[in-house]
């Protein structure tokens, strides 16, 4: 079993409503926002919780739901400095096993006074190849004004994904839309009215730390999300809307909605809230700041390379400069990625990219937001950095690279081949796009021929910002068979089953 489909009875969650869980003034600490697990490995994992008041976080783990002879982990003291959130790292766990955990919140002045335990479960990474791996990915949540609609049961796509029982969920960025206020209602083209849950922090663009925290907290108002989080561990990355649309370091805003014009200040506040609200190892010894890019080892079949195409990029521009050392990754992250790909012994190397490679994503009339800029010729601008990476993968004979992304608010599959490309020095590979989970749908963008993409599948609306009621959410599924090593990608739509399937063979070049 990859995980129990039953929601533990002790899971304490607030009712789906327009109001946040009540902050009780007396009694014991409460964890009404649920629990999450993340960055799970063979012998470790992170567990997250939020309290309603100062409390000591305690985690107990067990091999069974009965919690006989549990192991206890003493976590941090939760207080206003982290918005009462906290994460505890569990170590020394058995590999390939279902871990049941429960979080208790204790009164700091009287450890015997604890709130009702909140339970969750996850499966540690298996070191046995035969066990295989299954995971889901998507992104783009609460965007373009489409929030939690209680009349439609909230974000039911999370319940559908929970039913797929994956080993983990990869969120490819845009976990929030800090620049996208959510209004109480939106009238659809056919006259129907979409009704949103709203909060003060989601009623304007996020600028303060409290407003960014409120944006991340908004998603947890959905009971589907909380049930999903209690069962499926996450691997989370970020992109632009965690701060502001199409942002880059050093940008000074001219948007009249903002009183804080320095995007670096906004990004710093968002990153702090991001690291508070997700179980993610963003801080490492020796790091100058929190770091989102990392590699997650998922056993002999899979390594996941989580990129950050936002924090270290250069300014958005026409993107046609003949030299570009910074690119979209920055020199340090590119060196790290080349080094870690070379070290990887996994059969498959999934590159979790928060932006697509060959899709032309514009930023205004003349500038470009992603890698491609629409010039099908030799690499220019940010394409130079990607060309260097692809050349490295080919010359080091690194097999099994697959690119997964979201960002463009539709789903598609692209095969990149040097036989069709202006740049020839790379081995063929696939890129798969999914999303949005809970945001507006948008038409497909053009392809850039520099790396020879052939779009074998695309499904997108024919007009911008279609509601989730008109364009149901997209998510992707990856299944790696433990016996054959085959990797199967399925592009899915909520309620509509599988839209596209591609089976890739291990160790082959040119598929």
Automatic annotation (TrEMBL):
Keywords: Signal. InterPro entries: Metallo-depent_PP-like, PhoD-like_MPP, PhoD-like_sf, PhoD_N, Phospholipid_Metab_Enz. It comes from the Bacteria. Residues 141-490 form the PhoD-like phosphatase metallophosphatase domain. The keyword Signal applies. Pfam families: PhoD, PhoD_N. The keyword Signal applies. This is Alkaline phosphatase.
């Amino acid at each position: 079993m990859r995980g129990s489909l039953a929601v533990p009875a002790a899971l304490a969650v607030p009712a789906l409503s327009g109001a946040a869980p009540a902050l009780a003034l007396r009694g014991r600490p409460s964890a009404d926002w649920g629990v999450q697990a993340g960055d799970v490995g063979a012998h470790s994992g992170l567990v997250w919780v939020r309290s309603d008041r100062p409390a000591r976080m305690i985690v107990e783990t067990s091999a069974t739901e009965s919690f006989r002879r549990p192991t206890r982990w003493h976590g941090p003291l939760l207080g206003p400095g982290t918005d009462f959130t906290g994460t505890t790292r569990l170590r020394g766990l058995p590999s390939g096993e279902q871990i049941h955990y429960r979080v208790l919140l204790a009164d700091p002045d009287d450890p015997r006074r604890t709130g009702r335990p909140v339970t969750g479960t996850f499966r540690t990474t298996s070191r046995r190849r035969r066990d295989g791996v299954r995971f889901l990915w998507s992104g783009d949540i609460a965007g373009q004004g489409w929030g939690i609609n209680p009349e439609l049961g909230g974000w039911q796509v999370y319940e559908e994904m929970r039913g797929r029982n994956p080993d983990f969920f990869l969120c490819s960025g845009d976990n929030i839309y800090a620049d996208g206020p959510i209004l109480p209602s939106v009238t659809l083209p056919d006259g129907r009215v979409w009704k949103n849950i709203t909060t003060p922090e989601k009623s304007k663009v996020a600028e303060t730390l409290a407003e960014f925290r409120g944006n991340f907290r908004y998603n947890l108002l959905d009971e589907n999300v909380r049930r999903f989080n209690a069962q499926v561990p996450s691997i989370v990355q970020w992109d632009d809307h965690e701060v502001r649309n199409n942002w880059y370091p050093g940008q000074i805003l001219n948007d009249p909605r903002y009183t804080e014009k320095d995007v670096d200040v906004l990004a710093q506040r968002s990153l702090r809230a991001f690291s508070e609200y997700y179980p993610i190892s963003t801080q490492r010894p020796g790091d100058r700041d929190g770091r989102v890019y990392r590699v997650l080892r998922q056993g002999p079949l899979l390594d996941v390379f989580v990129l950050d195409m936002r924090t270290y990029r250069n300014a958005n521009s026409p993107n046609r400069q003949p030299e570009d050392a910074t690119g979209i990754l920055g020199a340090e992250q590119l060196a790290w990625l080349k080094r870690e790909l070379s070290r990887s012994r996994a059969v498959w190397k999934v590159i979790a990219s928060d932006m697509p490679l060959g899709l032309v994503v514009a930023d205004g009339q003349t500038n470009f937001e992603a890698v491609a800029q629409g010039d099908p010729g030799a690499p220019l601008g940010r394409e130079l950095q990607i060309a260097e990476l692809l050349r490295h993968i080919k010359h080091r004979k690194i097999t099994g690279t697959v690119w997964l992304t979201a960002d463009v608010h539709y789903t598609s599959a692209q095969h990149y081949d040097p036989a069709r490309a202006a740049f020839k020095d790379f081995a063929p590979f696939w890129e798969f796009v999914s999303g949005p989970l809970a945001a507006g749908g948008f038409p497909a963008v053009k392809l850039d021929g520099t790396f020879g993409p052939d779009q074998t599948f695309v499904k997108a609306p024919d007009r911008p910002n279609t509601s989730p009621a008109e364009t149901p959410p997209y998510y992707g599924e990856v299944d790696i068979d433990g016996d054959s090593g085959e990797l199967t990608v399925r592009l899915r739509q909520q309620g509509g089953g599988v839209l596209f399937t591609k089976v890739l063979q291990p160790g082959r070049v040119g598929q």
